[in-house]
Amino acid sequence: MRAIGIDIGGTKIAGAVVDEFGEILRSERRPSPAGDPVLMEQTIVEMINSLAEGEEIAAAGVAAAGFIDAAQSSVYYAPNINWRNEPLREKLEKRVSVPVIIENDANAAGWAEFRFGAGRLVSDMVMLTIGTGVGGAIVADDRLLRGGFGAGAELGHLRIVPGGLACGCGQHGCIEQYGSGRALLRLANEIADAGGIGQALASAREAAGALDGGIVGSLIAQRDPGAVAALRQLGHWIGQAAASLSAVLDPQLFVIGGGVAASGDLLIEPIRASYLDHLPARGYHPEPDFVIAELVNDAGVVGAADLARIYVGDHR
Ligand SMILES: [Zn+2]
Protein backbone atom coordinates (compact mmCIF):
# COMPACT_ATOMS: atom_id res chain seq x y z
CA MET A 1 0.00 0.00 0.00
CA ARG A 2 1.27 3.45 -0.92
CA ALA A 3 1.56 6.38 1.45
CA ILE A 4 2.33 10.07 1.14
CA GLY A 5 5.28 11.72 2.86
CA ILE A 6 5.53 15.49 3.33
CA ASP A 7 8.76 17.06 4.65
CA ILE A 8 8.54 20.70 5.73
CA GLY A 9 11.88 22.45 5.41
CA GLY A 10 12.91 26.03 6.02
CA THR A 11 12.84 26.97 2.33
CA LYS A 12 10.83 24.24 0.63
CA ILE A 13 8.22 21.57 1.26
CA ALA A 14 8.93 18.21 -0.36
CA GLY A 15 6.13 15.71 -0.91
CA ALA A 16 6.01 12.25 -2.48
CA VAL A 17 3.98 9.12 -2.99
CA VAL A 18 6.09 6.27 -1.59
CA ASP A 19 5.57 2.51 -1.92
CA GLU A 20 6.15 -0.08 0.81
CA PHE A 21 9.75 -0.60 -0.36
CA GLY A 22 10.63 3.05 0.18
CA GLU A 23 10.59 3.87 -3.54
CA ILE A 24 9.37 7.30 -4.56
CA LEU A 25 6.73 7.02 -7.29
CA ARG A 26 5.71 10.67 -7.67
CA SER A 27 7.03 13.81 -6.04
CA GLU A 28 6.26 17.46 -5.71
CA ARG A 29 8.06 20.49 -4.32
CA ARG A 30 6.76 23.87 -3.24
CA PRO A 31 8.31 26.92 -1.58
CA SER A 32 7.84 26.81 2.20
CA PRO A 33 5.69 29.67 3.54
CA ALA A 34 7.50 29.29 6.87
CA GLY A 35 6.40 32.65 8.31
CA ASP A 36 2.69 32.06 7.62
CA PRO A 37 1.05 29.16 9.51
CA VAL A 38 -2.29 29.55 7.69
CA LEU A 39 -0.70 29.38 4.25
CA MET A 40 1.50 26.53 5.51
CA GLU A 41 -1.55 24.45 6.42
CA GLN A 42 -3.19 25.31 3.09
CA THR A 43 -0.06 24.29 1.16
CA ILE A 44 0.20 20.92 2.98
CA VAL A 45 -3.48 20.21 2.26
CA GLU A 46 -3.05 21.05 -1.43
CA MET A 47 0.04 18.86 -1.70
CA ILE A 48 -1.60 15.84 -0.02
CA ASN A 49 -4.70 16.19 -2.19
CA SER A 50 -2.73 16.60 -5.38
CA LEU A 51 -0.41 13.66 -4.63
CA ALA A 52 -3.38 11.45 -3.65
CA GLU A 53 -5.20 12.10 -6.92
CA GLY A 54 -5.72 8.84 -8.83
CA GLU A 55 -3.80 6.85 -6.20
CA GLU A 56 -4.90 4.43 -3.51
CA ILE A 57 -3.25 5.95 -0.44
CA ALA A 58 -3.14 4.38 3.06
CA ALA A 59 -2.08 7.49 4.98
CA ALA A 60 -0.02 10.67 4.90
CA GLY A 61 2.89 11.50 7.21
CA VAL A 62 3.93 15.11 7.74
CA ALA A 63 7.48 15.71 9.03
CA ALA A 64 8.39 19.02 10.67
CA ALA A 65 11.17 20.34 12.88
CA GLY A 66 10.06 20.67 16.50
CA PHE A 67 8.50 18.82 19.38
CA ILE A 68 5.68 16.54 18.30
CA ASP A 69 3.50 14.79 20.89
CA ALA A 70 3.81 11.03 21.46
CA ALA A 71 0.40 10.51 19.81
CA GLN A 72 1.87 11.90 16.56
CA SER A 73 -0.89 14.47 16.31
CA SER A 74 0.07 17.86 17.76
CA VAL A 75 3.06 20.14 17.35
CA TYR A 76 4.05 21.35 20.86
CA TYR A 77 6.57 23.76 19.46
CA ALA A 78 8.10 24.38 16.03
CA PRO A 79 11.17 26.62 15.87
CA ASN A 80 10.60 27.92 12.32
CA ILE A 81 6.82 28.05 12.13
CA ASN A 82 4.52 29.78 14.56
CA TRP A 83 2.97 26.54 15.79
CA ARG A 84 2.48 26.29 19.57
CA ASN A 85 0.36 23.35 20.79
CA GLU A 86 -1.00 23.16 17.28
CA PRO A 87 -3.49 20.28 16.72
CA LEU A 88 -2.14 19.83 13.20
CA ARG A 89 -3.35 16.30 12.54
CA GLU A 90 -6.97 17.15 13.42
CA LYS A 91 -6.87 20.27 11.26
CA LEU A 92 -5.39 18.45 8.27
CA GLU A 93 -7.66 15.40 8.55
CA LYS A 94 -10.72 17.65 8.20
CA ARG A 95 -9.43 18.78 4.82
CA VAL A 96 -7.91 15.66 3.24
CA SER A 97 -9.33 12.19 2.51
CA VAL A 98 -6.60 10.09 4.17
CA PRO A 99 -5.46 9.53 7.80
CA VAL A 100 -2.60 11.84 8.79
CA ILE A 101 0.23 11.57 11.32
CA ILE A 102 2.76 14.22 12.35
CA GLU A 103 6.39 13.30 13.00
CA ASN A 104 9.60 15.10 13.94
CA ASP A 105 11.68 15.57 10.76
CA ALA A 106 14.91 14.10 12.18
CA ASN A 107 12.97 11.06 13.40
CA ALA A 108 11.43 10.61 9.94
CA ALA A 109 14.84 10.82 8.23
CA GLY A 110 16.39 8.40 10.74
CA TRP A 111 13.54 5.95 10.30
CA ALA A 112 14.01 5.98 6.52
CA GLU A 113 17.70 5.26 7.01
CA PHE A 114 16.83 2.39 9.37
CA ARG A 115 14.23 0.81 7.07
CA PHE A 116 15.70 1.39 3.61
CA GLY A 117 19.23 2.81 3.97
CA ALA A 118 22.39 2.32 6.00
CA GLY A 119 20.54 0.82 9.00
CA ARG A 120 18.48 -1.85 7.29
CA LEU A 121 20.49 -4.78 8.72
CA VAL A 122 20.53 -3.75 12.41
CA SER A 123 17.98 -3.57 15.23
CA ASP A 124 19.53 -0.64 17.15
CA MET A 125 20.81 2.48 15.45
CA VAL A 126 21.63 6.07 16.28
CA MET A 127 21.62 8.68 13.54
CA LEU A 128 23.45 11.96 14.05
CA THR A 129 22.64 14.60 11.45
CA ILE A 130 25.32 17.27 11.15
CA GLY A 131 23.76 20.13 9.26
CA THR A 132 23.57 23.76 10.38
CA GLY A 133 22.73 22.31 13.80
CA VAL A 134 22.93 18.75 15.11
CA GLY A 135 19.86 16.54 14.91
CA GLY A 136 19.32 12.89 15.43
CA ALA A 137 17.14 9.86 15.73
CA ILE A 138 17.26 6.70 17.80
CA VAL A 139 15.99 3.27 16.82
CA ALA A 140 16.02 0.85 19.75
CA ASP A 141 14.88 -2.75 19.39
CA ASP A 142 13.48 -2.07 15.87
CA ARG A 143 11.35 0.82 17.13
CA LEU A 144 11.70 4.55 16.78
CA LEU A 145 12.38 5.99 20.23
CA ARG A 146 10.20 9.06 20.70
CA GLY A 147 10.13 9.26 24.49
CA GLY A 148 7.13 9.32 26.80
CA PHE A 149 6.13 12.85 25.80
CA GLY A 150 7.34 12.60 22.19
CA ALA A 151 10.22 15.02 22.72
CA GLY A 152 13.01 12.44 23.03
CA ALA A 153 16.07 11.90 20.83
CA GLU A 154 16.94 15.61 20.74
CA LEU A 155 20.54 14.55 20.34
CA GLY A 156 21.85 18.04 19.47
CA HIS A 157 21.24 19.08 23.07
CA LEU A 158 23.23 16.32 24.71
CA ARG A 159 25.60 18.24 26.98
CA ILE A 160 29.25 17.43 26.40
CA VAL A 161 30.97 20.48 27.96
CA PRO A 162 29.68 21.52 31.41
CA GLY A 163 29.57 25.32 31.47
CA GLY A 164 30.49 25.41 27.76
CA LEU A 165 29.27 27.55 24.89
CA ALA A 166 25.76 29.00 25.10
CA CYS A 167 23.19 27.12 23.00
CA GLY A 168 19.99 28.34 21.33
CA CYS A 169 18.04 26.00 23.64
CA GLY A 170 18.93 28.12 26.68
CA GLN A 171 21.56 25.72 28.08
CA HIS A 172 25.34 25.60 27.79
CA GLY A 173 27.76 23.08 26.30
CA CYS A 174 25.38 21.16 24.00
CA ILE A 175 26.95 19.04 21.23
CA GLU A 176 25.21 21.33 18.71
CA GLN A 177 27.69 24.06 19.66
CA TYR A 178 30.70 21.79 19.00
CA GLY A 179 29.67 19.31 16.33
CA SER A 180 27.45 21.26 13.89
CA GLY A 181 28.10 22.94 10.55
CA ARG A 182 28.02 26.25 12.41
CA ALA A 183 30.64 24.94 14.84
CA LEU A 184 32.79 23.81 11.89
CA LEU A 185 32.83 27.42 10.66
CA ARG A 186 33.80 28.67 14.13
CA LEU A 187 36.65 26.13 14.32
CA ALA A 188 37.79 27.01 10.77
CA ASN A 189 37.84 30.72 11.65
CA GLU A 190 39.91 30.01 14.77
CA ILE A 191 42.41 28.02 12.70
CA ALA A 192 42.51 30.80 10.07
CA ASP A 193 43.24 33.36 12.85
CA ALA A 194 46.11 31.26 14.21
CA GLY A 195 48.16 31.31 10.97
CA GLY A 196 50.32 28.24 10.12
CA ILE A 197 48.09 25.51 8.69
CA GLY A 198 45.27 28.09 8.61
CA GLN A 199 46.80 30.05 5.71
CA ALA A 200 44.51 28.73 2.97
CA LEU A 201 41.44 29.29 5.18
CA ALA A 202 42.61 32.84 5.93
CA SER A 203 43.17 33.64 2.21
CA ALA A 204 39.79 32.17 1.25
CA ARG A 205 38.14 34.19 4.01
CA GLU A 206 39.79 37.36 2.83
CA ALA A 207 38.78 36.74 -0.79
CA ALA A 208 35.14 35.94 0.02
CA GLY A 209 34.61 38.28 2.99
CA ALA A 210 33.65 35.37 5.27
CA LEU A 211 33.99 31.58 5.42
CA ASP A 212 30.92 29.54 4.60
CA GLY A 213 30.10 25.83 4.40
CA GLY A 214 30.85 25.68 0.67
CA ILE A 215 34.33 27.22 1.04
CA VAL A 216 35.33 25.04 3.99
CA GLY A 217 33.81 21.95 2.31
CA SER A 218 35.83 22.48 -0.87
CA LEU A 219 39.05 23.06 1.12
CA ILE A 220 38.34 19.81 2.99
CA ALA A 221 37.86 18.03 -0.35
CA GLN A 222 41.28 19.40 -1.44
CA ARG A 223 42.77 18.02 1.81
CA ASP A 224 43.81 21.49 2.98
CA PRO A 225 45.46 20.82 6.39
CA GLY A 226 43.68 23.70 8.16
CA ALA A 227 40.20 22.77 6.94
CA VAL A 228 40.83 19.07 7.67
CA ALA A 229 42.00 20.01 11.21
CA ALA A 230 38.70 21.86 11.79
CA LEU A 231 36.78 18.79 10.60
CA ARG A 232 38.85 16.53 12.87
CA GLN A 233 38.04 18.70 15.89
CA LEU A 234 34.36 18.47 15.02
CA GLY A 235 34.71 14.69 14.67
CA HIS A 236 36.42 14.55 18.05
CA TRP A 237 33.37 16.11 19.72
CA ILE A 238 30.89 13.93 17.83
CA GLY A 239 32.86 10.83 18.84
CA GLN A 240 32.64 11.82 22.50
CA ALA A 241 28.88 12.26 22.22
CA ALA A 242 28.62 8.88 20.47
CA ALA A 243 30.54 7.20 23.33
CA SER A 244 28.04 8.59 25.86
CA LEU A 245 25.16 7.47 23.66
CA SER A 246 26.66 3.97 23.50
CA ALA A 247 26.64 3.75 27.28
CA VAL A 248 22.87 4.33 27.25
CA LEU A 249 21.70 2.74 24.00
CA ASP A 250 24.40 0.31 22.85
CA PRO A 251 23.59 0.62 19.13
CA GLN A 252 25.23 -1.65 16.53
CA LEU A 253 25.46 1.28 14.15
CA PHE A 254 25.95 5.05 14.12
CA VAL A 255 24.77 6.73 10.92
CA ILE A 256 26.19 10.17 10.22
CA GLY A 257 24.05 12.38 7.98
CA GLY A 258 23.66 16.04 7.05
CA GLY A 259 25.72 18.34 4.83
CA VAL A 260 29.00 17.88 6.75
CA ALA A 261 28.74 14.11 6.16
CA ALA A 262 29.71 14.77 2.52
CA SER A 263 33.30 14.67 3.83
CA GLY A 264 32.88 10.88 4.16
CA ASP A 265 35.81 8.96 5.66
CA LEU A 266 37.64 12.19 6.56
CA LEU A 267 34.84 12.72 9.10
CA ILE A 268 34.19 9.08 10.08
CA GLU A 269 37.83 8.41 10.98
CA PRO A 270 38.19 11.06 13.77
CA ILE A 271 34.69 10.24 15.07
CA ARG A 272 35.60 6.57 15.46
CA ALA A 273 39.00 7.36 17.04
CA SER A 274 37.47 9.75 19.56
CA TYR A 275 34.62 7.32 20.24
CA LEU A 276 37.11 4.60 21.20
CA ASP A 277 39.11 7.03 23.36
CA HIS A 278 36.00 7.93 25.35
CA LEU A 279 34.15 4.63 25.44
CA PRO A 280 33.48 3.33 28.95
CA ALA A 281 34.98 -0.15 29.46
CA ARG A 282 36.86 0.04 26.19
CA GLY A 283 38.10 -3.33 25.05
CA TYR A 284 35.13 -5.12 26.59
CA HIS A 285 32.45 -3.31 24.61
CA PRO A 286 31.61 -4.62 21.11
CA GLU A 287 32.44 -1.93 18.57
CA PRO A 288 29.60 -0.43 16.54
CA ASP A 289 30.02 0.60 12.90
CA PHE A 290 30.14 4.24 11.84
CA VAL A 291 28.80 4.94 8.35
CA ILE A 292 27.59 7.85 6.24
CA ALA A 293 23.82 8.09 5.59
CA GLU A 294 22.64 6.67 2.27
CA LEU A 295 19.33 8.43 1.63
CA VAL A 296 20.49 12.00 1.39
CA ASN A 297 17.68 14.20 0.11
CA ASP A 298 14.67 11.93 0.25
CA ALA A 299 14.96 10.55 3.78
CA GLY A 300 12.36 12.90 5.30
CA VAL A 301 9.56 12.13 2.85
CA VAL A 302 10.33 8.40 2.69
CA GLY A 303 10.43 8.08 6.50
CA ALA A 304 7.28 10.16 7.05
CA ALA A 305 5.37 8.04 4.52
CA ASP A 306 6.57 4.76 6.06
CA LEU A 307 5.72 5.85 9.61
CA ALA A 308 2.24 6.89 8.44
CA ARG A 309 1.70 3.49 6.83
CA ILE A 310 2.86 1.73 9.99
CA TYR A 311 0.65 3.88 12.21
CA VAL A 312 -2.44 3.06 10.15
CA GLY A 313 -1.51 -0.65 10.21
CA ASP A 314 -1.16 -0.60 14.01
CA HIS A 315 -4.41 1.31 14.60
CA ARG A 316 -6.71 -0.46 12.19
ZN1 LIG B 1 21.20 23.09 23.38
UniProtKB/TrEMBL annotation:
Per its UniProt record, what InterPro entries does this chain match? ATPase_NBD (IPR043129), ROK (IPR000600), ROK_cs (IPR049874), ROK_glcA (IPR004654)
Write down the top EC class of this protein: transferase
GO annotation, cellular component aspect = cytoplasm
Keyword set includes ATP-binding: yes
- A Gene Ontology biological process term: glycolytic process
Entry EC no(s): 2.7.1.2
Q: Which GO terms describe its molecular function?
A: ATP binding; glucokinase activity
In terms of superkingdom, the source organism counts as: Bacteria
Q: Which UniProt keywords apply?
A: ATP-binding, Kinase, Nucleotide-binding, Transferase
Entry's family note: Belongs to the ROK (NagC/XylR) family.
Which PANTHER family does the annotation name? GLUCOKINASE, ROK (REPRESSOR, ORF, KINASE) FAMILY
Which named protein is this? Glucokinase
The organism encoding this protein is Agromyces atrinae
